[in-house]
Amino acid sequence: MITPTQSKMARAALDWSIRDLARQAAVGVSTVTRFENGQGEPIPATVQAIKLALEAEGIRFTEHGVEMPALGGNDE
Asked: What positions belong to coiled-coil segments (predicted)?
């Protein structure tokens, strides 16, 4: 699972709005908003959909937050 803060960090790294994430995860905008604001108990399948949508764009979740592979090619 991911945390609300990780979701926000991942969206920032991708320059995605809440609407962008909701579209990619196939969930409602209000669902993403409630999750990221820590309102209520999220449905595990919904959190998984959010996580998978972000991972599909290269985001990796770690114990320290999120990582995104560097853009561009090889620096050799």
From this structure: none
Enclosing domain of residue 58 = 4-64
Name residues of the chain where pLDDT drops below 50. Answer: 73-76
pLDDT score recorded for residue 71:
56
Q: Please say whether the dihedral angle defined by the alpha carbons of residues 41, 46, 25 and 64, taken in this order, is positive or negative.
A: positive
Q: Which residues pair with 67 in a beta bridge?
A: 60
Q: In Å, how far are 23, 31, 49 from 65, measured between CA atoms?
A: 23, 21, 18
pLDDT tens-digit series, residues 66-75:
888 775 544 4
CATH number for the domain that contains residue 13 = 1.10.260.40
